[in-house]
Structures are given as C-alpha cells and as structure tokens.
Amino acid sequence: MSLRANPLNQEDTGPRGKEPILLELGGNAPFLVFDDADLENAVACAIVAKFKGTGQTCVCVNRFFIQEGIYDKFAERFVEEVNKLKVGDGADGSTTHGPMATRAGVDKVEEHIRDAVGKNASILTGGQRIPDLGDNFFQLTVLGGVNDSMKVAKEETFGPLAALAKFKTEDEAIERANNVEVGLASYAMTTDLARSHRLSEKLDFGMVALNTGTISDWAAPRVHSHPYGRVPPGYREMVNENYDKVWEDAFQSRTAFGVPETDRKTMEATPEERREAFQKVWDQGNGFRFMFSAFGDLTDGRAANEEACNFIRSKIDEIVKDPRKAHALKPRDLYARRPLCDSGYYQTFNRDNADIVDLRETSIEQIVPEGIQMKDGTIHQLDVLIFATGFDAIEGNYLRINIAGHGGKTIQKHWQHGATAYGAIACAGFPNMFLVAGPQGAFANFPVVIESEVDFITECILHAESKQRIMEVTPTAEQQWSDFCDKSVEGSLFKETSSWVFGANMKGRQTGPKFYFGGVKYYRDWARKEIAAGFPGFNASDGSSR
C-alpha cells in the first residue's frame, strides 16, 4: 500500500505532515514438514512453493523446517526433483525457470549462500551464477544444515535458494517459524488432522497452506456453479481447437461474455415460459447469461425488468431460510447493475456465522472499538472490518496522473464536465496520446474491449508513422462520439439506475455515460469505417483536417 504525497501541496509534507510511505506485509514464508507427512506430496508442494517465479514472489518459501525423522529422505528427494528443473532461455521449450529480476537480487542470493556455508551449512545442489546466460541467471540452489543464526533464516532471500533446517518437536517448529517480523504465508505438511488444526491456529501468518504448495486453490465444484467452479471437462480442449473462432464470436457479439444473446421479448412469452427461461439460465449460471440470454430486453423495459426481479426474489425466498435475511437480500432497485446470479452466494446466508444488515433501513452511526454501531444503537461486534467503499472506475487512474496537453491543459481540466474520449482512445488537445480502457468504450467484457481498442490504436500509430504526422483528435469528433454514446443509452434502464456506470458513486463528479452501449460488434464496425476513411476524426500535424 502506498500513499502518494501531493507535489502541488508541499506545505503539507515534511516531518509533521504527509510523507509518502510504502507498507508491505512481507514474506519469509516457512515450510514445515513433519515425520508423518506424505513424502512425495511434500516434495512436490515444496518445488511449487519455493521455485515459482524463480523464488521471487511474496508467498514463496524462504525457510524449510524438516522434522529430523524425515529430513534425510526429504532432502534427497527434494534435490533429485530440483535437479530435473532447468534455468534457461524462455524461448527454449525445455526451460522451466528464468532469470532473477535484478542484479541486486542475485548478489543477495550469493551473500546468503556465503554466510550459510561460512557457518557450516552445505550446498546440496546449485550455488552458482550462470554467466553464459546473462548476469541475472542463477542456479536453483538447496542448502542443508541451516540454523537460525544464518542470514537466510532471518532475511527474506527472494530468490532461488531453498534453506533446509532440522527440528525435533512441533512446538520447536512453530516457535522457529514464527520468529520473524513479517508473516504473509506459511506451509505445513502433515497427515495428522489434530496437528493441522493446531498449526492453523498457532502459525502467525496471514495464510496457512496445509498439504498444498499453493495458497489459493480452486473452488470446490457445485452442481450449478457459473464462473467460480472448476472448468468443465473438455472445455480447455474446445477453446484450444477453436481459439480463433472463440475470439471472432466475441468480436461479433454485443457483450462478448461468451453467452448466447437474444432479441426475444420478455412480455411476449407466457408466465410459464418466462419462468422456464429464467430457471434455465439460472441453473446454467453466470449473471451475464441471466441478463442477456433468456430475454433481450431486461435492461430496456420496466415490465421485463420487474419480471426478472420477481424471479430473483422468488429464488431468494426458496434458498434463504431466514425471512429477515431474505428480505434484506431481495432487489428493490432496477435489475440494471452488475448482474448477480446464484453461485453459492445466497446459500451462504443460511450459515450461523453469516449475516446481512440492510443499510437502507438502519444506517451506520459510527465505528466503535467493538465493531460497528448502527443508528438505532445496535452494535455489531467484529474482529476484522474491511472497508469496501467502491472504486473510481474508468477515468479514476488517469486523473491520478499529471497529464498535460497543448498549453499545459491538464486531463483533469479537460474532463471537468465529464470524461470523454473519441472512440475511447483519444482526447482533443492531447496529441499522440492514446488511452486503453479509457472513457466511453464499449460496455462489454473488458479483455475483448481492450483488444478492440488496441487494434484501433495500432492502426492510428501505423498511419502516423507512415505519414510522419502527429495524431490529434478534433474537438468536434470527440463531442460527436460522446453524443453517440449518449444516444446509445437512450431508453435503457441503466440510465435510471444510480451506479458507477454513470459515475454516481463518486461524490462531486459530473455524471454521464462512461461507456458506449451499442456493443463490441458495432464499436469494431465503427472503428473499421474510421480507418477506411483515413481517420477523419484526427487533424494533421499542421492543424489541417485529414
């Protein structure tokens, strides 16, 4: 987390004012292997947890604690598996690991090895630079006989160095593992269930991985689970075999979410047909499928929208057992926000340790030491409070940068009455500046939107290079595109919903359409026409129209 000091307000900075700082939880992760561990699984997990990213991630293992009864077997098998890996050129198909990020990182690995060997540790494999490959390449290295006096046991190496140390008892292992000032991740290998519970409680780290080399694992599968479950069997093979078609289908769609899109009218179906259609897409999962695949007018017509809301309310009543919780969960606004469809979310509220508070009925009064105090005096006791207060979408990050165009005009000044950009990629008065994921791009799946915008930007750059001209969009073209975006949302319920889509979540911000609602296909068609016409929305470097 970093706090950015304001360069235009220097009187606020200094010893008693604001200071730019950088805070990091840190790593130095321990990996504990007990005598009862599954040896082969422990070795496989150790390889993953230690050497991913060539040991340069914050959750990579830095210290291995191996119980003395299994130490020799683990060390032997671990070294065997490490020796099967290859540090090399990424273009070589046999390469498994690449270089370190910096020369300083290599120097630190060497320093830790020298210090450990000088204190009677032994190099079991590796330990050398690979100069033939470059300055930043270093062998995957394993040290044996490590003790807590060595730098590698105290400082995070952040490199391809595994340090193996013995321990006798569980209490000793926990004490030594916790003897660091940072604590992001930890790993433990044991088949003893009771020990697993003890370790999860006693290891002072933000994350504890038990019998796995990864901190975040796949979600458990569900019968009807949309984006969050396992990838269905054969899906990856289908994508690989039809890769170009998958992209083309996305380019030819409105939303590019990989779900069928229909023009079917909700109110033209009978009540029975409507419920059957809604139930089908609900069971298939994916909130965007629910919004766009059953009927094509849920975001355009109030009657159709209310039918969708009624169905969702009925599903909540069906799933959530507590009427109070169900009432709080039911939609009261238009179904025109980010779509929510069942993914196990509603079932969560049947748990005793999961509750929901409707802030529309009782607002928050203040944060107190015990937790949150409501307006009616109720205090909800909490151990941890996470502030999920929203985000400044689309233009927010651009506004944090000191971007200036002609005459020193800033992007903040340019967007003071609302963020606009010709085709989402360019602003008048800012020559040769191209935006990716800028304001008023297609309202659709962002990877496909970004791909489409980058295609357009690429053609602009190629045109500028071939003509040796500066690309600067005209104010008229930018305004016309903004008007086009306004027109694309006419009649849509999105316009009637107070949400981030129109900037309503940002206090004091001018609201307006952040997107073009005509879809990906029509955006790409428009861009192709602009390219074919010789980029009429841009001026030449001498100020004349193209």
Automatic annotation (TrEMBL):
Source organism, top-level taxon: Eukaryota
Pathway noted in the entry: Amino-acid degradation; 4-aminobutanoate degradation
Protein name according to UniProt: Aldehyde dehydrogenase domain-containing protein
Keywords: FAD, Flavoprotein, NADP, Oxidoreductase
Domain Aldehyde dehydrogenase: 19-219
Record family assignment: Belongs to the aldehyde dehydrogenase family.
Organism: Fusarium euwallaceae
Record-linked Gene3D superfamilies: Aldehyde Dehydrogenase, Chain A, domain 1, Aldehyde Dehydrogenase, Chain A, domain 2, FAD/NAD(P)-binding domain
One term of GO molecular function: oxidoreductase activity, acting on the aldehyde or oxo group of donors, NAD or NADP as acceptor
Active site: E24
